[in-house]
Predict the 3D structure of the following.
Amino acid sequence: MQYVWEWRLYGEADRRLTDGSPLRIVHPGLPNRGSGPDFFNARVDIDGVEWAGCVELHVRASDWHRHGHDGDVAYDAVVLHVVGESDSFVCRTDGSRVPQLLLPFGEETAERFRALCEGCRPLRCASWIGGVPRLHLADWLQRAGMERLEAKGERLARCVEYTNGDWSQALFIVLARALGFGLNGEPFERLARALPLSVAARHGDSVFQLEALLLGHAGLLAQNMPGYGDEYYGALRDEYAFLAYKYGLSPLPAGVWRLSGVRPANMPYRKLALLARLLQGVTTLFSRIMDAEGDPARLLELFDVDFGGSYWERHLTFGVETGRSYRTALSGEMARVLLVNVAAPLYHAYGRYTGDFLMEERGWKLLRALPAERNSVMKMWAEVAGVQPADAFESQALLHVKREYCERSECLRCRVGHKLIRQTCPGAARVREGR
């Protein structure tokens, strides 16, 4: 009842009180999160006289007495009592009667409300979401997609603040975390924060030294690590020992990495070797991404790293040679994930930082130009709710809705949940949607 009242789902038609007096609801008031009446600063017109004060709601009017409001001066400011069942009249402490409005709600409204508030399914709205107009859903996905892009852009902006305005170092941090693909995202970020990019830039012409820097600083070349007896492992370890002495570096503890239970292809070794190649050259990765101007094909070329002829062509980890060639450092799908998580937020954040709207626009345009992601969350949306994202922007939006609304039980703050409740409320067709 509070939800229906707050969002004016009772409709805009003039009403009558239980005593027959005409009523016009000027403003329902603001929710009271503390003790006392449910809403304050409400305004109602009763028989041509406008009243300002509080509104109290009950399922049954007699609840006013059961809750002891008739003896509580905090409820003397109530100008309207809204009830689902008018089984009693109510009074203030001075004996004056409180105007009462009967506002019943249907069982379908209650059923949907309970399902959205208390359900245990992954998508509580799955049974009804098919009835939400496509235009309404598209509008919600547009909003949710921008919320997610802005959140990623703000995270990158915080990295820029941490690096005292160094966008290249901030990009290095964000890219490193993205290469962790969730499982090792945290240690990848710790590595990028601990290793000055200026040190790596001095060795941009040597992929071997870059590998030694990254793998050694990650703590993955310690004596007790897997592959200790491997020849290439030993060469990298010796090189890092020299570089660490030269620059005063201290490696991360190896225990921060998740190695057990991780598929060989997802082990951090090859990802760090890939990162070493992305740092190669005199032109920074930041400049290369900017020069690509949001073109998906040009951006994908940046992450198209070939391990052909290197140690990593036939190794997924140290010391274990594979039976076939693994020349491609990243699959096309994984490269597109980096565009979604790194390039698009970079354009958005840098455009906002510099006031360049066209640069900021490249972020969401890039997402619109990329195919929808394929993961367990998208599979769930398709199988449970029949919702298929059209592109990466919409798949990001669905991820955002799942994590920020569904998983947090914020269904009533979600535009879909609000729409589903609103559909069951008679007279609400002309009510402006507030969610």
